[in-house]
Specification:
acyltransferase; two-stranded antiparallel ribbon; Aminopeptidase; 4 helices; alpha+beta; globular; Acyl_CoA_acyltransferase; seven-stranded mixed sheet; transferase; GNAT_dom
């Protein structure tokens, strides 16, 4: 049997990739196009999920990088890694994670997460990946739990009033913090 993700290539994003990344993230999470996949937030939030300034800042920052996944020169996935803390070893924030709705369910997300994990260890010696997920996204949280993430018990408020994060369709949104040891770290 052929590995369905063996044809993926990975690289760091550059300033030339910013527009394509914004389009990918928007397609995976917002609007009608996002409903083709299972990661849609369209029923929770309207408006934008990201913008060119936000993605450009991640690409330009020396404390972060944006990892891209391509299949036959087509962008199919991305994720951000940012060094955030030393407790007791470096922790990498994992976010801006998106897979093209048409390609979801084929292992790209798992492959991208595995590559991101390895890069966090190689670049920073990270002992853990940490992320935030909207608490109401129980299906997405369950997927991350199957990949080794666990809730930390910490919750963070949703930034109501800041339309850079979208226009909430309900008044009870908040983030849960998930964390997992990086590969090679005892679980």
């Amino acid at each position: 049997m052929t590995d369905p993700v063996s044809d993926l290539t990975f690289r760091d994003a550059t300033a030339d990739d910013v527009s394509a990344v914004v389009d990918l993230v928007e397609s995976a999470y917002r609007g009608e196009s996002s409903r083709a996949g299972w990661t849609t937030e369209a029923d929770l939030l309207r408006g934008r999920r990201t913008d060119t300034a936000g993605i450009a800042a991640v690409v330009a920052s020396p404390a972060s990088f944006l990892l891209l996944a391509h299949r036959e020169d087509v962008l199919v996935g991305c994720c951000e890694l940012r060094r955030t803390a030393d407790e007791p070893g470096p922790v990498a924030y994992f976010g801006t994670f998106a897979v093209s709705p048409a390609a979801q369910g084929g292992g790209i997300g798992r492959a991208l997460l595995a590559r991101a994990d390895a890069e966090a260890v190689t670049r920073w010696g990270s002992g853990a990946l940490e992320m935030t997920v909207i608490a109401q996204r129980t299906d997405l949280i369950a997927w991350y739990e199957r990949l080794g993430f666990r809730g930390t018990g910490e919750r963070r408020p949703f930034p109501y009033g800041d339309e850079r994060f979208g226009i909430p369709q309900r008044d009870d949104l908040e983030f849960v913090v998930l964390r997992r040891p990086t590969a090679g770290t005892p679980r």
